[in-house]
Amino acid sequence: MSHTPSSAPVAIRFPVITLILVLVVTAISLIGAQNLYFRGDYKVFFEPDDPQRLAFEEMQNIFNKSENVAFMVVPSDGQVLKPSTLMLVNELTEAAWQLPLSTRVESISNYQNTFDDEGDLIVEDLITAEKLSKEAIANIAQVLSRSPEVYGRLISRTTDVTVIDTTIQLPDGDQTQQVIEIAEAAKQIKSHFESKYPDHDIYLNGMVIMNDAFAVAAQQDAETLIPLMFLLIFIAIALIVKSLWAAIFTLVVVIFSVAITVGLTGWLGVYLSTATVNAPTMISTLAVADCIHIIVGAKYYLNQGLANKDAIKKSVEVNKKPIFITSITTAIGFVMLNFSAVPVLSHLGNMTAVGVMLACVFSLTVLPSLLTLRPLKPSVSVNNSVFSTWATLVNRNHRTLLPISLLVIVVISLFATNNVLNDVAVKYFDERSSFRQAVEVNEEKLGGMSNIDFVIYTDQSYGVTDPGFLKQIEEFSKWLRARSEVNHVLTFTDTLKRLNRNMNGDDQNFNVIPADGELASQYLLLYEMSLPFGLDLGNQIDIDKSALRIIALTENLGSRDITTLEREAKDYFASLSDDYRIEAASPPLMFAHIGERNMKNMVWGSVFALVLISILILFALRSIKLGGISLITNLLPAAIGFGVWGIISGEINMALSVVISMTMGIIVDDTVHFLTKYQTAREHGSSARESVVYAFETVGMALTTTTIVLTIGFAVLASSSFVLNAHMGMLTIIIIVAALIVDFIFLPALLAWLEDTKTAQKES
Amino acid sequence: MNFLSRIVLITALGCTASYGLASEIKGDEKAIAIAKERKARDTGWGANEAKVLMLLKNSQGKEATRKLEVKSLEVKDDGDKALTVFESPRDVKGTAFLSFSHALEADEQWIFLPALKRVKRISSQSKSGPFVGSEFAFEDMTSYEVEKFSYTFLGEEEVNGEACFVLKQVPEYDFSGYSYQKVWIDKSHYRVQKVEFFDRKESLLKTLYLSDYKQYKNKFWRPMKSLMRNVQTKKSTSLITEELTFDTDLQESDFDKNRLKRVR
């Protein structure tokens, strides 16, 4: 931009040089893009020092890892216990060993059935291809119903579905490549068996498949939403400014802004994720808003009879300040996402902030350059009469409009209290995702796939076979099983009871925990010696037999319910005795806690954004009174937005906690433009009412257009199959539209009323 | 089950070769010749007794130990017999485990639990499970028999400063946990220096390093240290032979299930 006010900006005087310069910068930035990589694992949502993540990782270090791929087999006739399905389970169990990085495969088929045979202890696979006679299957059914370790977990209690669970040992660090390969291999196994056994559906779930679903969601968003975004922008601009070239030029600005942002992200070594894959969509949306101001302005001055270059120059001059202020406030709002406890949301904030500032620069340089090279044609001027009519209407009825609108705002805002923090990772995917479909079937047939793993530390070697300890574990397991939200409890006490029974001639009276700790230890030794590869107890008992893991499978509980269960379970355990230490951890718990922590952090982020943006507005408007008014009108839309959200959904996930900060910078735009014009008119001696009319006439159209463009942009985001992105898009739209309505009804009514009270005060 | 044979007894100078199923061994000639020589050099040792320390480590370096006493008896043309008595941890002290290992069938196993005061026969086809929570599977610890595998000669390589033959051996037992193993056998004494174990999807699962070989009776070589590293879970187990005596007065009758109760 020029430093000599008399001459035109560099961008207009030397358009070709400007464009080449920007192209070079873009090319250099884009070299960084080759460093970009995508991370699809769920851990991108957690800081490395997140307490729940640390607890979970500690648990994974002590016990075998529990990342898994689960094949859920659903026979169409609703009966697993028949030769064909059991053959399938048998073969699928074998095939699952072929999944890359698999370390353990568990199913009803390789379940190690133990029983007494005239004093001998028999240990064998429950289901083998040779033993599928009617009597054998009846026996299998009986064994399963008496085996609490698998009943309700690897087979539903109504025996209509069965699960083959494969444990995967993923490497540390970036696992996306492996996850995609494993998921691909699992899909092949699935389709092979579905075609070999026609009357069976196989569904894939488990943590590895969920990680893959993150990658799939991101890929879908990148492949569909970003092109859709570009298309919509193109159409919107072409329609609004009625110029094909204007649309192309806007796209160029958008592409430069996005390309450099993405390139810089690569240079900085930041990875892409399901959240940041939509940063381009947000940047594009905000960049378009800048361009519209310049293009509409240029056309306005062309219509006024100015030469092309002069019209562009004038438009840049007039719009420079508002575009700059809006961009800065928007960037501030996004930078405040760094307060978030979710790393990928911070990344999203930083990327968008950079993109917005780039868009600001390019809309003031590249766009004028392009417009210089390819001039716009003047066209019919925009009809502003509807806005002045509206202004007059508001002025006349402000005494009714103000209390009514205030009442409506308050009532809607009250619904915000309906909102509850809720992060359930398996529900982050909408019905289009095959993972979500598997989640739904799992929920229907097995009651859900959430879990809490409890680890109880005795802090002494072979402490887990101490009778006192086992008794407490037994009580605790009973308590867990009595909870309605708990579907299955995997506890070592069941195994010990079974062994005690087996070793005593399968006498039911011995289906109890051995009273002697040494006996329990020796059973454990005996049992461990007879297990095949991949079915050891390393997932339940640690290396020196001092800690035990109990796995509770639960319904797909919301954040509040699962943390309640966690807390009450710990309390109950502590009420039994304080001899042992208990910890709880699991990915669902990590997600359950992140919402709360993120919200707490974002409250500060939002307050900080508010303070910074207010200072900027005060600076721009140079009036405490107008600054105050602008603050109110900027906060109301967020209140309305969350109120509306409380009515239509009520569920706040981690991505929604950041929306206040994010939208604050965007909606400030409206009030700043409106109040600047209002102020100008007042300074020229107009009354408040006249000034409102003037403000409406000059910026009413621009505000409406940007709101439409932003709505379109965020609507694209709202159509993401990834719920975090979709909800973020939806709530943003609600807030942006609310902001426009507030500025069109509440704000002018307030200004008129303030004038009245002032006059009244003077008169009295 | 000959506890140490895979680990401790793997190699030796032999006098009498085993001819039993020789004609049915599958694989290339050179590899089979090496395998037979390996077995031949470890034949005729008779019986021995060892005190062994087992050191388990998880990926975080947390440790646990077990102490065992192992008596082994060589059986011609079949897997060996082994009697393992646990010395520690305290809770399982006195637990005795008797096994007759077989090349291609399930092993015969009996266990005496002192707390139960009873001998139990365990019938299990699996030889692939971990031995007392260690990284050694049962099948890694039973005696080496030529018939257990089919062989391919892969080449020659130096390991631990010894020139070695490298063989690929595929288990013949249906219930093995491995798809194949890669074995490094030194040329000087036909001692195993290193073994790589590949799981069913043919990924490297574990590596066994054998070291500190000592010669007994002027013929038989035994490693005093065997380290098994699981490359997938990063866990490891060391077997350290603290004492090893040949020429004991062990007899066939000492390996009788009916005498298990009195082993101590």
Task: List the main descriptive attributes of the protein structure presented here.
heterodimer, A: about 775 residues, alpha+beta, Multidrug efflux transporter AcrB transmembrane fold, 3 domains, four-stranded antiparallel sheet, 12 strands, about 10% strand, elongated, disordered N terminus, B: about 260 residues, mainly beta, outer membrane lipoprotein receptor (LolB), chain A, 13-stranded antiparallel sheet, 2 helices, about 5% helix, Outer membrane lipoprotein-sorting protein (chain B), TP_0789-like (chain B), lipoprotein (chain B), Mycobact_MmpL (chain A)
Walk me through what this model shows:
The complex is a heterodimer of chains A (764) and B (264). In chain A, the strands form 4 sheets. In chain A, strands 2-5-1-6 form a 4-stranded antiparallel sheet. Chain A has a 4-stranded antiparallel sheet with strand order 9-10-8-11. Chain A has a two-stranded antiparallel ribbon with strand order 3-4. Chain A has helices at 10-13, 15-31, 51-62, 83-96, 134-145, 176-196, 207-241, 244-267, 279-303, 308-335, 343-364, 366-373, 385-396, 398-414, 434-446, 467-482, 492-503, 517-529, 559-576, 587-621, 624-648, 659-683, 688-718, 723-763, and strands spanning 68-75, 102-106, 112-117, 120-125, 162-168, 200-205, 420-421, 450-457, 486-490, 547-554, 581-585, 651-652. The longest helix of chain A is centred in the C-terminal third of the chain and has 41 residues, at 723-763. Chain A has 3 domains: 10-40 and 212-426 and 591-759, Multidrug efflux transporter AcrB transmembrane fold (Up-down Bundle); 68-205, no CATH class; 459-579, no CATH class. In chain A, a hairpin with a 2-residue loop joins β3 and β4 (120-125). With 764 residues, chain A is α+β, with helices and mostly antiparallel strands. Chain A is elongated and about 105 Å long. A 13-stranded antiparallel sheet of chain B has the order 6-5-4-3-2-1-13-12-11-10-9-8-7, covered by helices on one side. Chain B has a single domain, classed as Clam (outer membrane lipoprotein receptor (LolB), chain A), CATH 2.50.20.10. Chain B has helices at residues 29-40, 138-141; strands spanning 47-57, 63-73, 81-88, 96-100, 108-113, 118-124, 149-159, 162-171, 180-186, 192-198, 204-216, 220-230, 236-246. Chain B is mainly β and 264 residues long. The two termini of chain B are 18 Å apart. The interface between A and B is large, with 47 and 46 residues. β4 (120-125) of chain A pairs parallel with β6 of chain B, so a sheet runs across the interface.
